[in-house]
Write a sequence for this structure.
């Protein structure tokens, strides 16, 4: 039973990644067919991000009422319907309409699944599951490419993935009896050796947004999470342009190594899974930011060869790998199991906010100051993320000590 549900969750994480790179992969053709400017991609992604943020914030209330399994199944069904709708869209405004359920489905399933795994499975599975998300995100551009080159057109790519999502939704509905039978894993002890589960346990009732934001340590983790996701999305969008414009790398080489940034994240999460349970979430976050910082330094070294610059991008991807899963997995320990879903929902909202706003922000910065500022922009995000995560660690340590003193009294 445990293994069967875990296998379904792994497939669900692949499914989460499949739609994420479809819009970007197909947009060069889509915008021509729909006769809209290329910049209109930003409108579609903004609508998707808005829906994702809203459903992430509502996910905790929905999951408490209906259960993680049903919320996941319905959310995947919404995404499937949206993708099939994309495939039948003959105008831009219809595409925008379908972007609404696309975003709503993505945010709810992301928060529900991440919280379920954080509560019920070990840290290694959180890393491996997010590696499977990267696998899905890496596959969909090839599906789009095949659809276009085979003459079937971009709608067939959306239709194929939409039907695959629909099949998964049916499987999830069939698996609903399993979701309540998996025993939660005990919370791991904090990396500093403090007592496990030091955060407030909370009652199994709805945690309003205002109360979640008042929990000590929540604001720092939101800023850290937003900074990490901003770092990731900015690197994905602008790294290739930086290599070409500022470092003189050939466009084909730059494109290949920009894709290796994503592959580095995927491979890094797979490898981190073997270390996660022993290293602990806190050390994974620290180490991840440190490795990203090393990659950023390699990007700016004034050397006459491209090797170190290109290696820096791959190193940065490897450093990014453990940060997202570790922040999510540590949530029940840092804030209590009763509060974890509410906090994870807000974290998802912060993540999408950071990943949505940072790339255009850097676009404005580069227009004003030049593309050479990309490493500085990334370094600032690394520093902010590490600073806020360490502030969270201090809050948790104080809470642990206070709980120990109260227990002795």
């Amino acid at each position: 039973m445990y293994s069967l549900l875990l296998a379904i969750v792994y497939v669900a994480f692949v499914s989460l990644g499949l739609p994420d790179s479809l819009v970007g992969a197909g947009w060069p053709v889509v915008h021509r067919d729909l006769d809209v400017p290329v910049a209109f991609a930003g409108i579609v992604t903004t609508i998707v991000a808005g829906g994702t943020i809203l459903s992430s914030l509502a996910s905790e209330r929905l999951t408490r009422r209906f259960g993680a399994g049903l919320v996941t199944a319905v959310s995947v069904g919404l995404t499937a319907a949206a993708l099939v709708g994309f495939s039948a869209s003959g105008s831009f405004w219809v595409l925008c309409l379908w972007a609404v359920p696309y975003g709503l489905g993505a945010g709810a399933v992301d928060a529900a699944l991440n919280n379920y795994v954080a509560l019920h499975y070990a840290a290694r599975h959180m890393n491996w599951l997010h590696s499977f998300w990267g696998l899905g995100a890496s596959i969909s551009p090839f599906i789009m490419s095949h659809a276009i080159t085979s003459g079937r057109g971009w709608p067939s790519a959306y239709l194929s993935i939409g039907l695959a999502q629909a099949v998964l939704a049916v499987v999830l509905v069939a698996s609903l009896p399993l979701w309540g039978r998996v025993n939660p894993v005990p919370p791991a002890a904090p990396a500093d050796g403090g007592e496990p589960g030091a955060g407030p346990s909370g009652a199994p009732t709805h945690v309003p947004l205002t109360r979640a934001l008042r929990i000590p340590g929540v604001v720092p983790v939101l800023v850290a999470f937003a900074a990490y996701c901003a770092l990731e999305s900015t690197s994905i969008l602008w790294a290739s342009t930086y290599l070409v414009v500022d470092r003189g790398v050939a466009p084909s080489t730059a494109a290949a190594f920009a894709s290796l940034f994503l592959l580095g994240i995927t491979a890094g999460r797979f490898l981190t899974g073997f270390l996660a349970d022993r290293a602990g979430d806190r050390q994974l976050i620290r180490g991840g930011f440190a490795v990203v910082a090393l990659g950023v330094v390699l990007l700016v070294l004034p050397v006459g060869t491209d090797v170190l610059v290109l290696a820096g991008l791959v190193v940065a991807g490897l450093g990014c790998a453990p940060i997202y899963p570790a922040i999510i997995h540590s949530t029940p320990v840092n804030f209590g199991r009763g509060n974890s879903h509410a906090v994870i929902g807000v974290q998802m909202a912060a993540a999408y906010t950071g990943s949505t706003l940072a790339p255009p922000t850097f676009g404005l910065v580069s227009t004003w100051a030049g593309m050479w500022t990309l490493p500085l922009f990334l370094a600032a995000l690394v520093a902010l993320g590490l600073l806020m995560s360490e502030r969270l660690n201090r809050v948790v340590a104080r809470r642990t000590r206070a709980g120990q003193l109260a227990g002795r009294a």
Summary: Residues 187-203 have pLDDT under 50 and may be disordered. Residues 2-179 form a domain with the Growth Hormone; Chain: A; fold (CATH 1.20.1250.20).
